[in-house]
Amino acid sequence: MPAMSDLFGLTGRTALVTGASRGIGRAIALGYAGAGADVALLARGTTALEELAGEIEELGRRALVLTCDVTDRDQLRHSIVSAITEFGQIDILVNNAGGFSHAGPFVDLRPQDWSEVMRLNFETVVFLCRELGRHFLKRGSGSVLNISSIAGTAGVPMLSTYAAAKAAIVSLTRSLAAEWSSHGVRVNALTPGWISTELTKTFASDPDASAGLLSAVPAGRWGEPEDVVGAAVFLAGDSARLISGACLTIDGATTAYAGGPAMLQFLGLGRIPA
């Protein structure tokens, strides 16, 4: 029986994390380093990546800063080559980069709005899975962790582009898991709920909007990026060696709670009882 430190550690592993300069990506990169992994850091902000690399090196691990626009295929391909050259191999891929710059009624969305969101959130995942998938399949091992969202498992008014892209990630995760598991390559996803990040700060900083959102979160609070780290380390390591095709939800029971605010009102409750 392996020691618990081996099951839940990542010593000797190397990871590549996109969108690593802030939020969930930054937290996962630090969490992996804390668990013993060396980490290649991808994002557009060089200064933020260098600061993160310094924190990782203080933990005794190696960090590689790769300033990269993930929507630029040439930059991505160069970053992958640089990471493999530096570390010798990549064991874990975390597809975290994503976001949206426009929201609104479905009928008002332009084809450009769709293409921009799909390119950033989904096509980038496809490209990285294909490029590093070859690396993993050749070696007969590897772990892919795709960061989706509860937006990809339920309808989200005014965010149809983002929700559709995140739903596509869930489907891709399951398809690749079914295709690659016999080759020793695992593919899983996380579907976080309302996490306090740069992407959600507009909602979180508005008291009325925040209260409205949290009324449908039984846990009663915004998640923090650190709340995602344990699941990310677990799915990357040997403790999850038979887990592939899983989509682990981290949302304070939001998606488990069928009624939301309307059900509370129906029951005559102003809040979830303590």
Give the topology.
Blueprint: H1 4-7, E1 14-18, H2 23-34, E2 38-43, H3 46-58, E3 63-67, H4 73-87, E4 92-95, H5 111-139, E5 142-147, H6 160-180, E6 185-192, H7 201-204, H8 207-214, H9 226-236, E7 247-250, H10 260-267
Parallel strand pairs: 1-2, 1-4, 2-3, 4-5, 5-6, 6-7
General description of the model:
With 274 residues, this protein is an alpha/beta fold. Helix content is 46%, strand content 14%. The protein contains ten helices and seven strands. The protein has helices at 4-7, 23-34, 46-58, 73-87, 111-139, 160-180, 201-204, 207-214, 226-236, 260-267; strands at residues 14-18, 38-43, 63-67, 92-95, 142-147, 185-192, 247-250. It has a seven-stranded parallel beta sheet, sandwiched between helices. Helix 5 links the parallel strand 4 and strand 5. It is globular, with a radius of gyration of 19 Å. The model is unreliable at 261-274 (pLDDT under 50).
Name the poorly predicted regions: 261-274
What amount of the residues lies in strands?
A: 5-15%
**Radius of gyration over C-alpha positions, nearest whole angstrom:** 19 Å
CATH superfamily: NAD(P)-binding Rossmann-like Domain
